[in-house]
């Protein structure tokens, strides 16, 4: 933008000094009257005209510096804010936000589900075992019931209280 603006200003300076403006540009510059804006005896130059004309361009004169942007974004009054939507978890007593899951309880769930996923991925397709079967998860304290046409994943840990039977079949 600045190259374009500098080129325009040089063009206007040359045209004002050496022979006026083109006829096509005259109607574009007619709303600005130099007599009305220049009440003093001072000569109204091209630089003054361009400085007044910047309002029409609708762009800032100077670039906003990076420290100024950082100050606006991370000012001292924006760093800390009190959270008023905290509640305690019913299971473990840790604090968490109202619309989220407790982090400590989620870590337990994530650990068990990652263990189940790892067991699911331990199959060898070259032995004839396919992964398109339905999966049944059996924990250490579950009964040894016969389940037909389902792939059984056995875990050595006891069944957690939150992992119900209906989730495993």
Mean pLDDT: 77
Radius of gyration: 37 Å
Structural class: mainly alpha
Any idea how many domains?
2
| Succession of helices and strands | HHHHHEEHEEH
Q: What amount of the residues lies in strands? A: 5-15%
Give the CA-based shape.
elongated
What is the helical fraction, as a range of percent?
25-40%
Distance between the termini: 65 Å
Let me know the largest β-sheet. Answer: 2 strands, antiparallel
Number of strands: 4
InterPro entries: Mitoribosomal_protein_bL32, Ribosomal_bL32, Ribosomal_zn-bd
Keywords: Mitochondrion, Ribonucleoprotein, Ribosomal protein, Transit peptide
Protein name: Large ribosomal subunit protein bL32m
GO molecular function, one term: structural constituent of ribosome
Would you give an account of this structure?
This is Large ribosomal subunit protein bL32m. One of its GO terms (cellular component) is mitochondrial large ribosomal subunit. This protein has 169 residues and is mainly alpha-helical. It contains seven helices and four strands, in the order αααααββαββα. The chain has two domains: 56 residues, no CATH class; 83 residues, no CATH class. A hairpin with a 6-residue loop joins strand 1 and strand 2. The longest helix is centred in the middle third of the chain and has 19 residues. It starts with a helix and ends with a helix.
């Amino acid at each position: 933008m600045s190259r374009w603006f500098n080129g325009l200003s040089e063009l206007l300076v040359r045209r004002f000094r050496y022979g006026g403006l083109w006829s096509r540009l005259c109607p574009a510059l007619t709303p600005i009257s130099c007599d009305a804006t220049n009440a003093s005896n001072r000569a109204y130059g091209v630089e003054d005209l361009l400085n007044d004309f910047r309002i029409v361009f609708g762009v800032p004169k100077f670039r906003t510096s990076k420290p100024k942007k950082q100050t606006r974004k991370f000012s001292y009054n924006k760093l800390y804010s009190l959270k008023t939507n905290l509640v305690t978890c019913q299971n473990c007593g840790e604090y968490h936000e109202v619309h989220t899951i407790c982090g400590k309880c989620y870590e337990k769930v994530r650990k068990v589900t990652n263990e189940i996923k790892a067991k699911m991925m331990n199959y060898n397709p070259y032995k004839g075992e396919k992964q398109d079967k339905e999966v049944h998860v059996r924990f250490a304290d579950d009964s040894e019931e016969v389940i037909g046409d389902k792939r059984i994943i056995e875990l050595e840990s006891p069944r957690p209280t939150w992992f119900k039977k209906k989730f495993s079949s």
